[in-house]
Automatic annotation (TrEMBL):
It comes from Neophocaena asiaeorientalis asiaeorientalis. (Microbial infection) Interacts with African swine fever virus (ASFV) MGF360-9L; this interaction mediates degradation of STAT1 through apoptosis. Keywords: Activator, Cytoplasm, DNA-binding, Nucleus, Phosphoprotein, SH2 domain, Transcription, Transcription regulation. This is Signal transducer and activator of transcription. PROSITE patterns: SH2 (PS50001). Pfam families: SH2 (PF00017), STAT2_C (PF12188), STAT_alpha (PF01017), STAT_bind (PF02864), STAT_linker (PF21354). Belongs to the transcription factor STAT family.
Amino acid sequence: MMEKLVKSISQLKDQQDVFCFRYKIQTSARTPSLDPHQTRQQDILQETLNELDRRRKEVLDASKALLGRLTTLIELLLPKLEEWKVQQQKACIGGPPDGGLEQLEKWFTAGAKLLFHLRQLLKELKGLSHMVTYQGDPLIEGVDLRKAQVTELLLRLLHRAFVVETQPCMPQTPHRPLILKTGSKFTVRTRLLVRLQEGSESLTAEVSIDRNPPESQGFRKFNILTSNQKTLTPEKGQSQGLIWDFGYLTLMEQRSGSSGKGSNKGLLAVTEELHIISFTVRYTYQGLKQELKTDTLPVVIISNMNQLSIAWASVLWFNLLSSDPQNQQFFCSPAKAPWDLLGPALSWQFSSYVGRGLNSDQLGMLRDKLFGQNSKTEGALLSWVNFIKRESPPGKLPFWTWLDKILDLVHDHLKDLWNDGHIMGFVSRSQERRLLKKTISGTFLLRFSETLEGGITCSWVEHQDDDKVLIYSVQPFTKEVLQSLPLAKIISQYQLLTEENIPENPLCFLYPRIPRDEAFGCYSQEKVNLQERKKYLKHKLIVVSNRQVDELQQLPELKLEPELESFELDLGLAPGPEPGPGLDLEPLLEAGLDLGPALEPTLEPVMESTLEPVLESTLEPVLESTLEPVLESTLEPTLESTLEPVLEPTLGEVSQRVPEPDLGPGLKLEPIPEPLSQLLPEPDLPHDLRHLNTEDMEIFRNSMKIEEIMPNGDPLLAGQNTVDEAYVFPRSHFYTDGPLIPSDY
């Protein structure tokens, strides 16, 4: 239609030129009006004027039709832009990514080009009316009306085309936009979807915050420290688009006049205050000048990173439920959330941050925690206070704190296992029992603790001879444990000591019936450093739980509810954190374990970094009555066969640095008398083994089966070419004396 209109205007110009030519000839002739030739020329001039009037009306009608088509186009484009904004809002809280902005830019630019072109054509028509006008000229009023309509539509398109392409976000938390910290840099990007710029005009965008702040008590005010302007040159605009990228903005709270320091004494918490960042650009093109404005989604401004979790809950709740994206007073009366909106949003937190969302069973468990197991969730609504503060189970963790800690744990330590579907995760203890009791012994699953921040536990089933079904749960692993030993290795190498102190791995099948090694074998492959193997005997760190004979005898006496019948096994992790203050090795040294002199200083860093945490995690909680059995069952293979040169200096180093444990008023470690005789060093042994008292260690021979611990035989001594791995089974650092208790995790 535009081409047709252009052609019609061109024909109109030609027709007007013909009229002007004939009109000049007619007015220049001085013949009497009664002359037949003159009369004929006047008739021709009148016909030309009639034709000109007809063509002018046709051109106006064509411009009206084209304007109607362009109006329809804009009416179709603007909802598409609103859909993109809604999609962007969901993407900010973890939803599907917002795409299609480049296509919108093409559509908006094409529509704006047509409107600007039509505006220019109307200007030409206005010029034609100035050259030739007559009574009843349709161009006098028709052109002005069309031009006003085109300008209104064009301004509407331009104002909507100025958008925030990337919402404010700090570089250190890219997965949680719309949260800003005072004094920290953040980025934000704006774009004008109408990609039209004068060749000599630079466009400058200016940023401000809280242009129209709400009138509420205690509402904080902020200043932008860095430059609040960004200039776009024509060269960059033509090559990159009309994009203003603010990469180094920083906020600072304004000082209060009374206290000299910013304060918040209003009704809203800091994490519930919503602030809006605004942008303004003075746009000029083809004589049209207009100030364009756009705003970000509301942001939450914190002063400390420990407020990040609750601030993200506020961002999630607002963008999920607010009908007005600029409502800064939303949390004065926050809306309630139905499950059909909240459930997918919770799944987005995992899919966007980790890679895999929540399935229907996992969402069902979360729904029951929020709404109750017996409640009907179809019409139920959850309040904002219950979402962030409701303790589930009562007296334990608030729901959002519990969920957010799990999210961090999965992202930092369990991402591969989670994405591969090996972690069931969100399953209640009652559901856990219903699932496991139908499976064979040794079937286990991984679920998140409901009472511990960021903890994951392993539960397995054992079928007794009397048809009883027992569910055991290991004390939950937290990030402190998983930083030292990955969960896949813990599962693959986990050991449970039986009444004969024989270690065995009770974890055989991942629910429903996937062999353990098939599920976790690919995660525990290690790269072999041949240079290191030549220097040291290789060792492995494993987790061990101790099941005492007297505890097993007391199991039938425990009366548990059917849904809560679960027994907790304490676990042992070889490489714990830094040595604690409660470790004292003097009683061990006095027990007859003469470990000889320390090795050369070159081995000290290795000892400190490898076995020092082992001693802390395995020996610290052991009391007087259980100290010797622990040494018999765990340290004997190590001292005898594998780690003799490594263990010696570590024991010495730890005993010098770690103070004596405080066992309370009723517990005290009694020193064991020093042996009366000392074996003379044997000259044919290596120098670091000559002082080892192997005679007193002969009692350990019958306590464990060395063949099961080292299937490849004893490790080779120094000077040989290869080294076999030796397994160390330390005492659990979670070990406690007494019977097993029902799991609270």
